[in-house]
Amino acid sequence: MPLSQRTPTYTGRFAPSPTGPLHAGSLVAALASWLDARAAGGRWLVRIEDVDTPRCVPGADRFILSQLAACGLAPDAPPVWQSQRTATYEQALAQLIDDGWAYPCRCTRKEIALALGARGETPARHGELVYPGTCRDGLHGRTARAWRLRTDIPVPVRVLDVEQNRPSVLAKRTKFATNSVATGFIRWTDRRLGEQQQNVAQAVGDFVLKRADGLFAYQLAVVVDDATQGVTDVVRGEDLADNTPRQVLLQHVLALPTPRYLHTPLVRGADGEKLSKQNGAQALDTTDPIAALNAAAAVLGLPPQLGTASDALAVWVLQWGARWGAGRGGPPGALYNRVP
Ligand code: GLU
């Protein structure tokens, strides 16, 4: 069945990258997504995001799954590993190439920095350079290194196919002009953060779909996987919120449903920085699951519990449901017709 034709029933997911064990911050996202799924009476899936293989630590995937299990967070279906899904990402890229959204790029980082400098621009966004679009008009005899998504053409407005109650793109790219929102401009509503918007073309530029080392980029993999798995609700850490516009844009151009999003508060270290494996966050100690869960629950504004992990989870499901209850934020796909 085409990805765009799956029936939405609540499906949530936790999608850890196996670059190390779970830490206190990642448990917050795992717990929140589990609570949201349970409160909605839906399914909760775990996807191991090992697409960036050089950053993965052997055995971390199994260890993460055992840490989740120790905390009573067991997925409702066997986990999926992104490293086994390359063929599906290839298909999505082929579709984007076919429809004129993806193009090959030959530029090295140094060349991108030089091109930006020549235009008098020194923009660095989280250390990332906003790609100046050099290869949009072809490779000029050079060899492709990566594939990028065009963000300089109007985003298609999607409509719900009334008969089938399914999303569809109005027309192929060339016909979008009269039915389009501003170029690369994405608006979305976060269930916790509220109305959000980003001009992807200005803030990020044509972003990478397939990297120079041949690996698929997180943005493409996550969008394809969320659609394949029928994910209706993405609940994850706030550090990922600014990836959402790129993902919504990809959903638009691939004619895939847009899930609801809820970005959870981050756990900060003593230095005020977000706790992450990169800044040496300790592996989560699950020998005392209720202590680990209580710490995560506190970040989510849920009161500490004294009993077992499963008793605590049952209490929090009710409290979570009362605050973030199923359906708040509208049905998945509510964004389809939103034109600024
Ligand atoms: N794999 C990502 C991470 O561990 C999370 C991706 C997502 O939830 O969309 O940061």
Would you write up a description of this structure?
This protein is an alpha/beta fold and 340 residues long. Helix content is 30%, strand content 19%. The protein is built from nine helices and 16 strands. It has helices at 24-39, 60-70, 86-98, 109-118, 200-203, 218-228, 244-254, 289-299, 309-324, and strands at 11-14, 43-48, 80-81, 102-105, 124-125, 128-129, 146-149, 154-156, 158-161, 166-169, 180-183, 185-190, 194-199, 208-210, 233-237, 260-264. The strands form six sheets. Strands 3-2-1-15-16 form a five-stranded parallel beta sheet. A three-stranded antiparallel beta sheet has the order 4-7-14. A hairpin with a 2-residue loop joins β5 (124-125) and β6. The two termini are 32 Å apart. It binds glutamic acid. Residues 15-17, 49, 222, 236, 240 line the site of glutamic acid. Glutamic acid is lined by residues 15-17, 49, 222, 236, 240.
Any low-confidence stretches, pLDDT <50, length ≥5?
Answer: 159-181, 329-340
Order of helices and strands: EHEHEHEHEEEEEEEEEHEHEHEHH
Per DSSP E runs of 2 or more residues, the count of β-strands stands at 16
Q: Total number of helical segments?
A: 9
Report mean pLDDT, rounded to a whole number.
84
- Kindly provide the radius of gyration, computed on alpha-carbon positions and rounded to a whole number of angstroms: 20 Å
Structural class: alpha/beta
Specify the biggest β-sheet: 5 strands, parallel
Percentage of β-strand residues: 15-25%
Distinct ligands, ions and cofactors found in the model: glutamic acid
Helical residues, percent: 25-40%
Strands of the biggest beta sheet: in what spatial order?
3-2-1-15-16
Assign an overall shape: elongated
* Ends distance: 32 Å
